[in-house]
Amino acid sequence: MPALLVDRVSKSFGGLAAVAEASFTLEEGELIGLIGPNGSGKTTLLNILSGHLRPDAGRVELDGEAVQGLRPERLAKRGILRMFQLTRVFRRMSVLDNLMVAGCALGLGQGEAERRALELTEDLSLAPVMRLDAGQLSGGQLKLLEFGSCFMVPPRLALLDEPFAAIHPTMKEIMAGFIRRRHRAGQTFILVSHDMPVIVELCPRAICMNAGSVIADESTRAVLSDPVVIEAYLGGAAA
Amino acid sequence: MRRHLTVGTRARARSELVYALAILAAVALAPLAVANDYWLGVLIVSMYFALLAAAWNLLAGYTGQFSLAPAAFGMIGAYATGLLSYHYAVPPLLGIPAAVAIVGLIGLTLGRVVMRLRGPYLALTTLSFGEIMRLVVSNSINFTRGDLGLNVPGILESRVGYYYLMLAVLLAVELGLFLLLRSRAGLYLQAIRDDEVAAASRGVRIVLWKTLAFALSAAISGLAGALYAHFAQLVSPELGLLSQTGLIVSMVVIGGMGTLVGPIGGAFLVYVASEFLRNVGGYQLIVFALFVIIFARFFREGLWGLLRRAIA
User: Fold this and answer.
1) How many A×B Cβ pairs under 8 Å?
2) Less Cβ crowding at N or C end of chain B, within 10 Å?
3) Closest Cα of chain B to A85: distance in Å?
4) What is the value of ipTM here, to two decimals?
5) What residue spans of B34-158 are helical by DSSP H?
């Protein structure tokens, strides 16, 4: 049984089919890159998987159970946690408290949540700022904080939407290193990114979307050299 | 560059509690200096407003939900114990807890509906609820005596007695809020205030916690109203006027929204000031409204925020 099954999922906004019969499966412990040009439906698909949008049609199964249309807090409790493209943290709460919210909401006691929050701030080089309000952090630190919030309780599936966009290379390396270690330990991920070198380095497998559909789904190198993918990125003229 | 003043939500709550307790200690000593009944009365009413302000701050300051019903909940609490005593001879010792329970339940029911609304819709719905309740009380003349007002029995002999009763309740509510903020619930409420979508996506049951905050805020307002009723021994629908809510909002905003100490300090400051401004009549609300605009625009954390910076 796959960890995640996405079966002919569709979502339209008015006349625009943002996601059109997208299907793929994800095995436990896989780290896949989800790529595609702007507007190809990656974020909409992530919003469906995390419960922020209801699909118009199709089925999403987590460990064999249908989960499409469940609310975000329910999906979080089942282990689907996500980062947003536009960072979302609790700006008037300290870094530690931000992490503790995520831990407590998933059932940890306050003591245990605090212990893990301290560990994570160490792991993500946020320890020097852990008592500051999140609103005082830099853009990159905010991304790291939101990233860390997904790992207070190891998620069943982590959805990362452009975690590396517009952050300092050092922080990118901190995050990439963290992803690598967790992947090695068996964590399942979907990673949306436009940063192809990182996708190639981290993800053994990639899925490319275009105009709402999955147009390629194989090993990352094969996907990136697929003429259909190149055409989607560069337009018809380049093919 | 802004100096780093913050040391975490819970440590901040602790330092705010210390200052809140200092204010309450000063209030406890005030009767030594203020011997006359009139000013004792002013301070008792200030404490009534401090309770309402603390309740509204729990909702608006800590949970980010801008309700316009706090005065209405206070009025309902006052009428609940008043009517129980007037019609059914229920003693105040039962009437006050009953009022808290009734207002809490109304809050829970209303909260289930309005906590699915956001921003202006929440404000408008709670505003309509408050106005409807006030008109119902005002027009149910056979049951509530309407605008004539309802006589409520007193519970204590001396004004000083009421003074320390109110102070003890205010202290208990403040300590309770402090414990709440240090608990998981406090983390969830503040997370919801800062970003509902993020809170939900991390597994926080946002509708549940918002509804509970609304009910608790209503219950505290109901307690304030019930105590006020037995002190004033006369309640009228005017307790639920929107201008009363305006006063509560201005106390919280001027004192410092989203802090433990702000609403209490703001309540004493604004209510005592309004006594001094009594001669200028209706203009006092204009003055407070101006302060609210200035503070909301330039000093988000109110006087407490300014003071904290000065200390640090």
Assistant:
1) 94
2) N
3) 12
4) 0.92
5) 37-60, 70-88, 92-114, 119-139, 141-144
